[in-house]
Design goal:
It is a single chain. The protein is α+β, with helices and mostly antiparallel strands. The protein has a domain at about 45-55 and about 60-280: Beta-galactosidase, Chain A, domain 5. The chain is built from 20 helices and 32 strands. A hairpin with a 5-residue loop joins strand 9 and strand 10. The relative contact order is 0.10.
Length: about 750
């Protein structure tokens, strides 16, 4: 693999630590030190401002604006796109000492230290500001509440070491933020600031979404300083001036409530702000995270770097999503950056959903509910592409297709089949039939309609498949019979038919409701069955290889290991068409469905396909390393599995793709969890019972992980010789370990490695 780690952060099992500041890593650090709680997120930017390259990013899930795309006169090509819009800077702060403005791009400073505590979500930063008039020690703290969605807090401590003079602090709320496209996208009513209470309302220019931001500023600084409200466009701020002598100190604490359309009508939260404190929020967060780590921690013994890496991944997953806001999804960068415009992709159901299925059932259900809430938009999209049923968008915030690259938006079917796969996984693992009854069957019916109209029979009508498509490997476009697409299409048709049959027998009133709502006809069921049975799956019996698409085996070959590291990312350095002219793979395609339906394939088939396709993959997608790691471990390629695991788990901490500054690779973070639990732990969830087949990397002394299954926590501990399993609460749970069915309870069950 032609990519290497770019190490910068200190190693610590429970913290992300930056000792000293290097401007070359400013953007990456902003992403890594992002805070969020699903409702809102904020990058780790310097609240006092920074005069070099950085991205002041403050975002709210489900708050977006809209823009026209380049005019194209072809049916089915998107004319408008939507994007997560950079919002209010509730951390806004400016510091001035005797006329000198603090800006680490130009100011003289020393002893810089920043750290993120993964057990509380507390982000702290300290340094000594060496002004012309003396030294000032500064301490910055920030929090986003994991308990109360709309709430956050900031605290700044100022201590004079030998400085004597006036310090001016300007702080409050700023809607004059700049989107990454260098555009200002908010219209604001006049802000108001009085006696430390500030509030302002912003409205997006094209979607008319209102965000109200409110804060209360308190602390010893406000009690002793001269204070005046400041009137500036799109700001609501207070200005405090305080005289310092050597050894004196002051603290400013700001509690914040941000209200978005997801919170309902805007209300004045002044009373609540008065009751909030930084310390109480911190204690609530510590309790919240303690419960999370009790159920979800992964401990690695003998590998400090990956211990830190996997805990960072788990931490970011819960910051990104935990079922707090119904009707939202997970953007490719979460709430940590503006790359991909904040859109969600097909990997929500294939990469992120498994994490929540085994940690937070409510979050898993809410993720799938987003697809139901946007089903009508998927129906509209299908019509625009001359299909029936529902065609789910490849990139979306509101349910509308937001990708104006036709080769992706019109040729990729995997968002739709991933929804079907997600419904099946949710039903199988949770046993929640109500979701299938109330939402799932309707989605499955419309997805199958699309699959039955998007594909076609070959000329002699002996096989059915999908023509002019793009599979998960986005380096191949307009291909015929992409194996992943056909395989997933057949699965979706079969699962829909099976689900309808089951519901027809066990809940006929539900079946009738679905038929009445969708207009489902018996002849459609017959048609779907025939097309499923005729589905063409490109497979060579002699070699045991699935052909990625028709003609793939005959493409010109390129040795991906010969590509210089400086050429990455390829989209930035190679002409677009050059990427498509060979057998280089961006991310797993055949290997992807071998993982999703792992129990359906022999180890020999997995090995043959892995050994053929792995050398062709350039891993230009952050989704790629974990799939390869899991399959490599399954077939005994332990060194390869471990190398891919390191890549996935520390993708952003070590900036492997050299683009972490654009935002974290959220779905890769989810896949890193799969790397351990599905890879080394051998968890499989595509059968009737979940199963485990654990292994241990030779570099580790041991590891343990926990998953929530059937409302019980299963604890797995693995050392060099054996693995032990038990349930945390003592409930009896049936699983498969190795090849044996076992009933777990609160007593350890041992399995020899």
């Amino acid at each position: 693999m032609a990519k290497a780690a770019d190490k910068y952060f200190e190693t610590d099992p429970w913290k992300i630590v930056e000792d000293g500041f290097d401007p070359a890593y400013a953007m990456t650090a902003e992403s890594v030190f992002s805070l969020g709680n699903e409702y809102m997120g904020v990058r780790g930017y310097f609240e006092e401002g920074y005069g070099r390259e950085h991205l002041l990013g403050s975002y709210f899930n489900g708050v977006y604006d809209r823009k026209k795309t380049e005019t194209q006169g072809y049916k089915g090509i998107v004319q408008e796109s939507e994007f997560m819009v950079n919002s209010v800077d509730w951390l806004y702060l400016r510091l001035e000492a005797d006329g000198e403005v603090l800006d680490l791009a130009v100011s003289d400073f020393e002893d810089f230290h920043r750290e993120l505590d993964l057990r509380s979500g507390l982000l702290t930063r300290q340094f000594i500001w060496k002004t012309k008039s003396g030294r000032i020690e500064l301490n910055f703290e920030r929090l986003i509440s994991m308990v109360h969605n709309a709430e956050s807090a900031q605290r700044v401590s100022i201590r004079s070491l030998d400085y004597e003079g006036t310090v001016r602090v300007k702080t409050g709320l700023d809607f004059d933020t700049v989107h990454e496209s260098d555009k200002k996208l908010w219209d604001c009513s006049p802000g108001d600031a009085d006696n430390g209470y500030c509030h302002i309302v912003g409205i997006t220019r094209h979607t008319d979404m209102k965000v109200g931001s409110f804060c209360l500023i308190r602390g010893s600084l406000t009690e002793t300083a001269d204070a005046i409200p400041v009137t500036e466009d799109k700001k609501a701020v207070m200005l405090y001036s305080l005289n310092f002598t050597s050894g004196s100190e002051a603290t400013m604490e700001k509690t914040v409530i941000n209200q978005t359309p997801l919170a309902g009508d805007l209300t004045d939260p002044a009373d609540r702000l008065g009751k909030m404190t930084f310390d109480s929020m911190l204690e609530e967060n510590r309790s919240w995270w303690k419960e999370v780590w009790l159920k979800s921690d992964i401990e690695i013994r003998g590998d400090e770097e990956n211990q830190q890496g996997i805990r960072f991944c788990i931490f970011q997953m819960f910051q990104t999503y935990h079922g707090a806001v119904k009707g939202t999804n997970i953007g490719a960068k979460g709430l940590t950056g503006e790359a991909y415009n904040g859109n969600a992709f097909w990997d929500t159901e294939t990469y992120c959903l498994p994490f929540f299925l085994f940690h937070d059932r409510v979050a898993a259900r809410n993720l799938l509910y987003f697809r139901y809430a946007t089903l009508d938009e998927a129906r509209k999209r299908a019509k625009s592409l001359d299909c029936e049923g529902a065609f789910y968008p490849i990139a979306t915030i509101s349910g509308r297709e937001c990708c104006n690259l036709w080769q992706h938006a019109s040729l990729q079917l995997q968002a739709s089949t991933a929804v079907a796969y997600g419904i099946r996984c949710y039903e199988t693992i949770t046993g929640d039939r109500e979701f299938l009854y109330d939402h799932g069957l309707e989605m499955l019916t419309e997805i199958s309609r699309m699959l039955a109209t998007r594909g076609d029979y070959n000329r002699d009508h002996t096989s059915y498949g999908y023509y002019c498509v793009m599979g998960p490997d986005e380096f191949q476009m307009m291909v015929n019979n992409n194996c992943y697409t056909n395989y997933m299409g057949r699965f979706a048709l079969d699962y829909t038919l099976d689900s309808l049959k089951r519901v027809r027998e066990e809940a006929p009133e539900v079946y009738k409701r679905v038929v009445d709502k969708t207009g489902l006809k018996e002849e459609e069921l017959i048609d779907w069955q025939e097309k499923s049975e005729a589905m063409y799956i490109p497979f060579d019996e002699a070699t045991g290889l699935y052909e990625q698409h028709e003609g793939f085996f005959r493409l010109p070959h390129i040795d991906v290991d010969e590509i210089p590291t400086a050429d990455f990312p390829l989209y930035h350095h190679w002409s677009y068409d050059r990427i498509y002219r060979n057998d280089m793979i961006k991310q797993p395609d055949v290997l992807m469905f071998l993982l999703l339906f792992n129990s359906s394939f022999t180890e020999d088939i997995i090995r043959r396909n892995y050994e053929y396709y792995e050398p062709l993959c350039i891993h230009e997608s952050s989704l790629s390393p974990s799939v390869h790691s899991i399959l490599a471990e399954q077939i005994g390629k332990e060194d390869e599995a471990y190398d891919f695991f390191r890549f996935a788990t520390r993708m952003d901490l070590d900036n492997y793709n050299r683009n972490s500054g654009e935002g974290l690779h959220t779905t890769s973070i989810a896949a890193a969890w799969m790397n351990i639990v599905y890879g080394f732990g051998g968890l499989r969830s595509d059968g009737e019972l979940i199963s485990f087949n654990p292994h241990i990397p030779s570099k580790w002394e041991g590891y343990s992980f926990r998953v929530v299954y059937k409302d019980e926590v299963i604890c797995v501990n693995v050392d060099k010789k054996r693995a032990s399993f038990h349930t945390l609460g003592g409930k009896s749970i049936d699983v498969i370990i190795g090849k044996e069915k076992v009933t777990l309870n609160n007593e350890d069950h041992y399995y020899d490695l």
